[in-house]
Design a protein that fits this description.
This protein is mostly helical and 248 residues long. The chain is 71% helix and 0% strand.
């Protein structure tokens, strides 16, 4: 019996690997579990804020799904209620989320395959995704693992916002300690990054100095100023060390 031409053509193509894909997604789920401990409480707090502000419950998961901006979401709620001009909203967004431009310098987007996957990976580039995917433990992460990790983080925020919006009317306006979960998570991620780079002690020192100078010079725009100073310091160190062999 002759083999149909379609079967021959299919046999010449690389066979899909659903088992490998599911394995990578499971690994990403395990990687994101600890991050979810900080993202879910943040989502709960945001959902409660939306409910207590008088906005419809469905707007909380919608904002988390479409904007996915973390801190900026909390700032946009009062700005929305006050009908803030778009210019002010845009400037606030730049000052709060301007750090993402620096993340793009070393985020492993080149390891993400596919146009749509790259677009989503760029959209879902959060503080947690950057901290985890640029660390030493993620050097061998595949494209599905990176994108799945970001998708799980995104899902934690949306699920937390939805839950917070649905139960927000049953809870007090403020729960002590809930707003500190995200800060604690970022501190832990920073300590993990420092521990992985014990041989590179000057880098965290430069970061601390940049934050201190920014706090003194521009307390109102401390984050963006600190990132600019830190990036300038890293570039200066890079060019200085690159010239050293030439003088030797």
């Amino acid at each position: 019996m002759a083999i149909p031409p379609v079967a021959v053509a299919d046999a010449s193509r690389p066979a899909p690997a659903p088992h490998r894909l599911s394995t990578e997604m499971l690994a990403a789920l395990k990687d994101s579990a600890s991050v979810g401990l900080g993202l879910v409480p943040m989502g709960l707090a945001f959902g409660m804020l939306v409910t207590h502000s008088g906005l419809p419950w469905w707007s909380a998961p919608m904002y988390s799904a479409v904007m996915y901006t973390g801190t900026l979401e909390f700032l946009l709620v009062p700005m929305l209620l006050a009908v803030t001009p778009l210019v002010t909203v845009g400037l606030t967004t730049l000052l709060v989320n301007g750090r993402h431009a620096f993340y793009a310098l070393s985020f492993p987007l080149h390891r993400v395959n596919g146009r749509w996957a790259k677009l989503y990976s760029t959209f879902a580039l959060s503080d947690e995704a950057y901290a985890m995917t640029t660390g030493g433990q993620a050097r061998n992460w595949s494209s599905p693992r990176i994108v799945s990790f970001q998708a799980f983080n995104h899902l934690y925020c949306v699920a937390g916002s939805l839950t917070g919006a649905l139960v927000g009317s049953l809870l007090p306006p403020r729960i002590t300690g809930l707003d500190f979960a995200m800060t604690a998570l970022l501190v832990v991620l920073a300590l993990d990054a420092i521990r992985e780079r014990r041989h590179d002690l000057p880098t965290p020192i430069l970061a601390a100095l940049a934050a201190l100078i920014a706090r003194l010079l521009a307390p109102g725009q401390m984050l963006l100023t600190a990132f600019c100073l830190f990036t300038a310091a890293l570039l200066a160190r890079h060019f200085a060390t690159r010239r050293e062999p030439a003088h030797a």
